[in-house]
Design brief:
It is a single chain. The protein is α/β, with parallel strands linked by helices. The chain contains eleven helices and 19 strands. β15 and β16 form a beta hairpin. α1 crosses α3 and α10 packs across α11. The protein binds pyridoxal-5'-phosphate. The site of pyridoxal-5'-phosphate (PLP) has 12 residues, from α9.
Length: 380
């Protein structure tokens, strides 16, 4: 690219990332802090970590390393591909695969020493056979029981029947677990009901460790903790419970770079579909990040509806018009000295993951797991 005389004087950033259109910064110290916080909150229970979906979009390898440094020894993922990636980082930690045992895949678990969470009677029989045929009856597994969510796991009578048949003696039963449907609403009666249902199943296995809590469950108190807690979202700074202040440290900062600043005269439009008409002469910054980066198109503005602010040098700049694949546009008329090349905060100090989620009509989990993979990533 040609350098025009005087061009560099308008460059706001001369750092190593000057060529990056958007920068995702992941604060591993904040992650470590959040782990310590949740471990403390888990009381006597061991605090594991859920690193499924690329550690909620933040990088499975990097997050796992940071958690290992904090002494985390047990990890939960959704599928075997994720377990394989985790094994690239550690051979020692326990790795549970929550999605279960798909038919014919038992050997692949044993190959990488991953522990399946057996969700059905079919899963259990298949694992028991595999364990006896190939692992001297000692292949490790968890079972998931359904305490009322009706999503994944066995009902109590199915578990009791398997127990009668002696099936659990044919492999190494390491953990009995279940999942809460409404832990983010502490007052929801289902929490207590699920606790009672889980306790009654768990009591069939008095010597086996048990696990019930996701992030929000940890805050429901000691009765819910059992032996291992399984936080995900709270590790990554997300809000675990509704309607209370979020005690977690924000882990993610997302910045987009201003590609152009221009004055759009009153009466003219900005962006696709001419969705928004300027009601004054407007200074418009075009920022290099769009729906291909996980910035939901739903967050765009129209003449009738303005949902979202980005922050330019700490000041709010309302979005204008639609979100494009690679670009968004914001009103910077009231902000001084806005420069092309400058970085704009999309997530960070002023906009938390949950703020953006609220504006997009979704939850922090979806914002994080939708983060695109073409950001320049910085781990600090
Ligand atoms: C995703 C998941 C978790 C973690 O939940 P968070 O709400 O993110 O803390 C725990 N247990 C199971 C079974 C899960 O699917």
């Amino acid at each position: 690219m040609q350098n025009l005389p005087g061009d560099h004087e308008t460059e706001a950033n001369c750092d190593d990332f000057a060529d990056a259109s958007a920068i995702l910064t992941i604060d591993l110290q904040a992650l470590a802090h959040n782990y310590r916080f949740l471990k403390e909150k888990s009381g006597k229970a061991e605090c594991a970590a859920v690193v499924k979906a690329d550690a909620y979009g933040l990088g499975l390898e990097e997050c796992t390393r940071a958690l290992l440094d904090e002494g985390c020894k047990t990890f939960f993922v959704a599928n075997l591909d994720e377990a394989r990636r985790l094994r690239g980082v550690t051979l020692d930690a326990d790795v549970y695969v929550m999605g279960g045992l798909y038919p014919g895949t038992a050997k692949q678990f044993t190959q990488i020493n991953a522990i399946p969470v057996l969700n059905t009677v079919g899963d259990v029989s298949e694992w028991a056979t595999h364990s006896q045929d190939h692992c001297s009856g000692d292949a490790p597994a968890a079972i998931q029981v359904d305490s009322g969510m009706n999503r994944l796991g066995m009902k109590k009578d199915a578990v009791a029947e398997l127990l009668d048949e002696g099936v659990f003696g044919r492999f190494q039963l390491k953990l009995v677990m279940s999942h809460l449907a409404c832990a983010d609403e502490p007052e929801h009666p289902l929490n207590r009901q699920q606790l009672d249902a889980f306790s009654s199943i768990r009591n069939l296995f008095p010597d086996t460790p048990a696990s019930l809590c996701n992030s929000a469950g940890i805050f429901l108190g000691g009765d819910f903790h059992f032996d291992i807690t399984r936080p995900g979202i709270a590790l990554y700074g997300g809000r675990a419970r509704n309607n209370v202040a979020n005690p977690m440290k924000q882990v993610v900062t997302l910045e987009g770079r201003i590609a152009q600043v221009q004055i759009v005269p009153e009466g003219e439009i900005v962006g696709y579909g001419a969705a928004q008409t300027m009601t004054r002469d407007t200074s418009v910054a075009t920022i290099s990040l769009g729906y291909a980066d996980g910035f939901f198109r739903y967050l765009g503005s129209t003449d009738d509806l303005q949902k979202t602010n980005v922050f330019v040098a700490g000041s709010p700049a309302p979005l204008i018009g639609r979100v494009s694949m690679d670009l968004i546009t914001a009103d910077v008329t009231d902000i001084k000295d806005v420069q092309r090349g400058q970085l704009v905060e999309v997530l960070g100090e002023h906009v938390t993951v949950d703020d953006l989620a609220d504006q997009a009509g979704t939850i922090g989990y979806e914002i994080l797991t939708s983060l695109g993979n073409r950001y320049r990533r910085i781990y600090k």
